[in-house]
Amino acid sequence: MTKYIFVTGGVTSSLGKGIIAASLAKLLQARGFKVTIQKFDPYINIDPGTLNPYEHGECYVTEDGAETDLDLGHYERFLNVSTSQANNVTTGRIYKYVIEQERAGAYLGKTVQVIPHITDEIKRRMQLLGQSGEYDIVITELGGTVGDIESLPFIEAVRQLRWELGNNDSLVIHLTLVPYLAAAGELKTKPTQHSVKTLLEYGVQPDILVCRTEHKLNQEIRKKLALFCNVNVNAVVESIDASTIYDVPLLMLKEQLDKTVLTKLKLSTKHEPDLENWKTFLGRLKNPTTEVNIGLVGKYIELPDAYKSISEAFIHAGSTNETKVKVKFIAAESIDSKNVAEKLRGLDGVLVAPGFGARGLEGKLSTIKYVRENKIPFFGICLGMQCAVIEFGRNVLNLNGANSYEMDADTPYPVINLMEEQKNITDMGGTMRLGAYDCDVKKGTKAFAIYGKAKISERHRHRYEFNNAYLKDYEKAGMIASGVNPKTGLVEIIELKDHPFFIAGQFHPELKSTVANPHPLFVSFVAAALTHKKSATK
Predict the structure, then answer these.
(1) What is d(CA 289, CA 321) in angstroms, rounded to the nearest whole number?
(2) By CB count within 10 A, which of 103, 131, 236, 387 is most buried?
(3) What is the per-residue pLDDT for 427?
(4) What local confidence, expressed as pLDDT, does residue 46 receive?
(5) 259-268 residues labelled b (16+ CB within 10 A) or e (exposed)
(6) Looking at 117, 174, 508, 519, which residue is catalytic?
(7) Could you confirm whether 510 is annotated as catalytic?
């Protein structure tokens, strides 16, 4: 029978429930258990697809085309297992389903209420993955903080589900904060006590406390927390600030979080966790032999979480190359043709990031022109590829005014056009080209050398595409379509013949980079930046 673990948060947001959930899942997976993680978010949006990245960080896209919370990226990067539509549920999706059922007459004239109809639907979705028979353990992270009004139906659903499942088949981990008051020179447990008290008022007793802290928890504090929060002393787990999120599984192993969980769930340990590959990755990450400076040119640089998967993909690629990758975030709108050399000074490679809308477009075009002409390694993702196409059209093919139809519907040269299947769409949410699509890679190209195979699959999130009416002109001038969708002819990858590394993809390769399988495009880009740095030094 599948066991269920629920992860709640208290005191404050952004404590790292997703990292704790992913770390625990990694330890259980390393012990031989089949584990998956799901995220339940309390906001009313159906999904994060229509949210500005400043609101919620990046929108993470799964293989099956779900637009999800960025924590699913952590789940995949830690476990090296794909997630799906079922792994992310929002209040909006719950209410939408219940209302549609009511309109269809499914409730036989009953008054539709939060309890039981909303909570029943939440419970049903919490158990969907467990009932598939694929997993021994399902970890469910509840977004928000205990005490938030919007979180109440989820907490109530957990209370009911725990009663239905029984104590040996479920448990609750409560992530909380133990702040350090410098003036008093001590750690304070009261915020955690109040957070647990609030949870108890809702009828949920946490089994394990995971305490975020800047300083180590001594035995006295652990006993105090255990006494006033009704948990065992060995169930008070220290989660001290770490230099990298990839340290957290080993820190949780040291705190024996996985053993405590298995004991409470009455599961016998299959074997000690096999984390040798993880430790090897961490060893290379923390002991680089060199470093490179990469510029990330984008719209949302004030919030690093807007490019979370790209940042993590650079960490994976850096470890593979035994190189520290220092990413410099540069606002695209701060760049123009006059200051571009100064803005990009000292960089060994430049990535132009994905995004929507015209803001910062000209800065991205100036950036690409500069790195193309000066043979600096370039990597473009989604809009970054489209910008490379526009820049090449304007400055090499002399298509004055070339642009994307998204930015200028009256452009004389729409080298980037709206996809045919997108032209009659009016709803913005969940209607882009989403999820994994096949791509044929041409032999003899840089892309083929990087992937090492002719058939690949990558994840997408876009409405606009390369306009194939201009393809012959581009290829004649030296920009090659090295990757193409076999069914639609959509150009997936472009590269330049006479450039050491100038590659861009219409897809989002960062979404498939994990600790176990760093993405080859990022690995090769970092290697190219290293080569450029060495040649520049000489």
Answers:
(1) 9
(2) 387
(3) 65
(4) 84
(5) ebbbebbebe
(6) 508
(7) yes
Distance of CA 19 to CAs 72, 84, 243, Å? 10, 18, 13
Question: pLDDT digits over 262-281, tens only?
Answer: 999 999 887 889 999 999 99
For CA atoms 78, 83, 89, 90, the dihedral sign is positive
Q: What is the pLDDT of residue 24?
A: 97
Separation in Å, CA 155 to CA 8, 17, 18, 142, 145: 9, 15, 17, 8, 10
Per-residue CA distances from 477 to 114, 273, 415 (Å): 62, 54, 15
Q: Any idea which residue has 């957990």 for tokens?
A: 158
* Structure confidence at residue 430 (pLDDT): 62
- Residue 350 β-bridge partners: 295, 378
Q: How many CA atoms lie within 13 A of 354 on its CB side?
A: 25
Q: Is 508 a catalytic residue?
A: yes
What dihedral do alpha carbons 62, 68, 70, 74 form, nearest 10°? -40
Cα–Cα distance, 163 to 454 (Å, whole number): 53
Across 66-104, b (16+ Cβ under 10 Å) vs e yields bbbbbbbbbbbbbbeebbbbebbbbbbbbbeebeeeeee
The pair of structure tokens assigned to 74 is: 């952590």
| Whole-angstrom distance, CA of residue 460 vs CA of residue 509 | 9
The catalytic residue among 316, 510, 519, 532 is: 510
Strands (E), 202-253: 208-213, 236-240
Q: Which residue has the tokens 């169930």?
A: 235
**Number of continuous H segments (helices) and E segments (strands) in the chain:** 18, 23
Phi, psi angle pair for 204, to nearest 5°: -120, 120
Count other C-beta atoms under 10 Å from residue 272's C-beta.
10
Whether pTM > 0.85 for this model: the answer is yes
pLDDT < 70 positions in the chain: 419-423, 426-431
Residue 420 annotated to the active site: no
| pLDDT reported for residue 129 | 93
Taking Cα atoms as reference points, which of 67, 37, 44 lies closest to residue 138? 37
Compute the C-alpha angle 359/380/534, nearest 5°. Answer: 120
Catalytic hit among 382, 391, 406, 439: 382
CA distances from 489 to 49, 141, 439 (A): 26, 40, 9
Per 3-state DSSP, the chain is made up of helix, strand and coil in percentages (nearest 5) of 45, 20, 35
Token duo for residue 106 = 């499914």
Residue showing tokens 């750690």: 187
What does DSSP assign to residue 183? Answer: T
